[in-house]
Amino acid sequence: MSLRGLAAMCLAGTSLFFFSAPLRAGATVERSTTPNGASYIELTDDAIPTTAMELWFRVPSIGFGTAPQPGIARYAATAIAASKLGSGTSLSTRVQELGGRLSIGAYPDAVSVAVSVPAASAPDVMKVLTDAYFSGVVTTEGMHLALRDLAIASTLKRFDPEQTLHDDVFAQLFASGPAHYPALPDDVNPLQKVKIDDLRAFVQRGFRSSNAVIAVAGGGANLAHSVAAISPSGTGPEQPVGSAVTSTRTPASGTFAEDGVGFGWSGPPIADARAATAMDFISDYLFNDDTGLVTTGAGAELFVSGQFVTLHDPGVMIVSISGKGYDAMESRALDAIQAMQRPLDAATFAIALAAFEYRIAGDVQTPLSQADNFGWYAIEGNPSYAPSDAGGEYLRTAASLDPQYVAQVAKRYLENPVVVHVKGTQPK
After folding, report:
1. d(Cα 264, Cα 188) in Å, to the nearest integer?
2. Can you list the alpha helix ranges (DSSP code H) found in 136-252?
3. By C-alpha distance, which of 305, 205, 369 is closest to 377?
4. Which regions of the chain are under pLDDT 50?
């Protein structure tokens, strides 16, 4: 996910796992570089009636300058989508006219623009999508609409326990750099002061074609030929922007709609694929929504989430808990994480690993999840490690795990977390 809570399975009697391959028979993956310098990945499956296409840009959420501007990357990406093009229609409107949906995601070091459309409309949408972003058109009206969008999203975030605790934990875990700040700012007022020329300058640097990864999955083929023919600019993609991990572990506090707690540990970078996969396994074993050792039986009054976020360096293990009785779940979660430093018995590990592999394969079965997967891992610096890749590197790495190695990884990374408690602002 990747960004994206994970799990253990305790089964009695006979256990049957019908393993689903990441790719359907006949599906193909092609990689290339477009004439304008963008990295291009396409998974073609003509049995799918829809096409997902995503543009990923390696841009820091706080901007390229020395003074951080939290949220500017999402602001810029949204302003482009809302600005009218030479045809007199904005990208967002044009995608709707062609029967598609557009969404924008912002992360500390990257922005994604995702579109899902009927396969027949895919060539036209690819052209307008890449034309809009590689040309970098930003209008005053587009900026106003983008600010409104960010203001709404920022307000909604206040009621989202996972996002709130994620931002609070990252702010404590990282002392500086883009990961220290929320990619969606808590207050959009400072962005109102950004001048159009400054936003255009940010767009020109960050959203150029040579800094882009284009990820496509689903029906329709050869969409590389539909990429806008815009001359490349710059010498290549931006280098990953790091964030410094804090050396202190002082408990912090905050506010939310209800009581809760967040934990965070810095973990292995994406380059250490086996350790990163072990962290994925741990989060799956403990915190999968349906079968996690910690989350099973949590009850409707509690929100519990745990995941390993695969990042360039370092990755982050994060746990969020909120709601009535969160303190008991807090102890349960910490005890379970501590216990992972001891190897699971062979039978339990085998069942948990099979469930993990099954879930990983199942998570990359839709065009949007496949494109998202390709883009994320490419931006973070290890594209062949993407679970949706035809080479199968991720699943081979998962198959190489054993109880002793997983325990070693837990002992190395899952000590001394950052802790943030939030107190509810609503009447009890």
Report:
1. 26
2. 140-157, 161-173, 196-206
3. 369
4. 1-21
The predicted pLDDT at position 127 comes to 93
pLDDT value of residue 426: 57
* pLDDT of res. 28: 77
Separation CA 81–CA 91 (nearest Å): 5
Contacts (Cβ under 8 Å, ≥6 apart) of 310: 1, 2, 3, 270, 276, 280, 376, 377, 380
Cα–Cα–Cα angle for 110, 131, 94, rounded to 5 degrees: 95
Report the distance separating Cα 146 and Cα 143, nearest Å: 5
The SS3 of residue 28 is: strand
At 15 the pLDDT is 30
Write down the pLDDT at residue 25: 55
Report H helices in 340-392. Answer: 346-362, 367-379
Return the number of other C-beta atoms located less than 10 Å from residue 177's C-beta: 18
Handedness of CA 371, 376, 379, 380 (dihedral sign): negative
Q: Which amino acid is at 260?
A: G
